[in-house]
Specification:
This protein is α/β, with parallel strands linked by helices and 147 residues long. It has seven helices and five strands; from the N terminus they run αβαβαβααβαβα. A five-stranded parallel beta sheet has the order 1-2-3-4-5. It is globular and about 45 Å long.
Length: 147
């Protein structure tokens, strides 16, 4: 699978526009293997995002041990930052650590203006969610990929 993926990357010149999201799995126990994958992917200009950050216990070690570009803060924290002090404190801590490590942050599940405003106050770099925009069909924006 990886060889097929790498051969696809070789075919395209716009890899710098891509971001691959890593989900925590059993493979994370083998940091060398995950690290090597990240480095190979980054050699194509592709960025790496660590998804669902804040949902698991070992996320902080992943941020310290892997060459990642983005931390996607889990929806379980973001969905409550406008009304829950503990969620705000966790997000503030994650953002502070990420920025010290030169990693950008993304708030998942931004579903209201209040959540977006709270994310801005906490210096989250990017936001995604239904308040920003609902998912759209790729064909609508880049139909040439489907010809």
């Amino acid at each position: 699978t990886l060889e097929m993926l790498y051969s696809k990357f070789d075919e395209f010149e716009y890899n710098h526009n891509l971001t691959i999201e890593l989900l925590e799995t059993e493979e994370f126990k083998d940091y060398k293997r995950v690290y090597d994958f990240c480095m190979k992917v980054r050699s194509y200009g592709i960025k790496i995002a660590l998804d669902d950050f804040g949902a698991g216990y070992s996320n902080f070690s992943h941020a310290l041990n892997l060459p990642i570009d983005f931390i996607k803060i889990d929806s379980s924290l973001i969905s409550k930052i406008d009304r829950d002090l503990n969620s705000r404190i966790m997000v503030e801590t994650i953002v502070g650590l990420a920025h010290k490590l030169k990693i950008q942050t993304i708030a998942e599940f931004v579903s209201s203006k209040e959540i977006l405003d709270a994310a801005k106050k906490l210096n989250v770099d990017f936001a995604q969610g239904y308040y920003i925009g609902k998912p759209q069909e790729i064909k609508k924006y880049i139909p040439y990929l489907f010809d």
